Structure formats: structure tokens, C-alpha cells
Amino acid sequence: MKSIECGDGDLMTPVEHQIQILELDINALRGKAVLDLGCGKGSLVERLREYGIYAFGVDSNVDKENGYLFKRRITPTSPIPFGERYFDLVVGFENSQ
Q1: Which of 30, 40, 46, 79 lies at a 20 to 30 A Cα distance from 65?
Q2: For the whole model, what pTM was predicted?
Q3: Among residues 3, 35, 5, which one has the least CA distance to residue 22?
Q4: H or E element in which residue 48 lies
Q5: pLDDT at 4
Q6: Residue 89 near residue 25 (C-beta atoms within 8 A)
Q7: What is the phi/psi pair of residue 59, to 5°?
Q8: What share of the chain is helix, strand, coil (3-state, %, to 5)?
Q9: 19/72 Cα distance (integer angstroms)
Q10: Separation in Å, CA 1 to CA 4, 9, 15, 16, 97
Q11: How far is CA 71 from the centre of its chain?
Q12: How many other C-beta atoms are found inside a 10 Å radius of the C-beta of residue 48?
């Protein structure tokens, strides 16, 4: 796995870099529901779940759907497979068209 050098010379994985840039408070999010819109292959979702966060992801690049990663093309009007007000936090990292 490749690493990214931080300003202080430390190395971190790309997922840890995402967590830092998004300023996610892992301790505060434990037990909460988080949606990553445009999750790519789901790396951030996987890491958040390792921390005890109920993370889910939606993206057209998901390789295989499971109970928390869903393959969908995301548009402003496309439905997602969750109820209204289901998530405590919704994130999107480097989403652009």
C-alpha cells in the first residue's frame, strides 16, 4: 500500500489522509451511521467500519455489492437504498463530473 508524506514528515495511507482532510472525529463517530457518496472502491468505508462506525458507500465503481457497499451511478435525483434521515453524516471526497 502506498503512503503519503504529511507536513511533519510522517507517512500515512491514502485512507488515513482522507480521514484527516475530512476532519473526521473517529471517536465521536463510533456507533454512528456515515454515508460516503462517491466512495470509489470503498476503502474509506472499509476503514471506518474497522473503527466501529456504521459506514456505507455508494458509487458506480463498487466492484461487488455487499450489505454496506452499493453499486449505483450517483446523480442529484438518483435514489439511494436508505431511508430518509438515516445517516448522522454524509461525506464525499473528490467527487466531480
Answers
A1: 30
A2: 0.82
A3: 35
A4: helix 43-50
A5: 46
A6: no
A7: -170, 150
A8: 20, 20, 60
A9: 23
A10: 10, 18, 10, 12, 27
A11: 14
A12: 27
Distances (CA, A) of 71 to 35, 52, 55, 62: 13, 23, 15, 5
Distances (CA, A) of 34 to 11, 30, 72, 78: 26, 10, 17, 18
The string of pLDDT tens digits covering residues 45-81 is 999 999 999 999 999 999 999 999 999 888 888 888 7
3-state secondary structure of 78: coil
pLDDT in tens, 76-95: 888 887 888 899 999 987 66
Helices (H) and strands (E) in the chain, counts: 3, 6
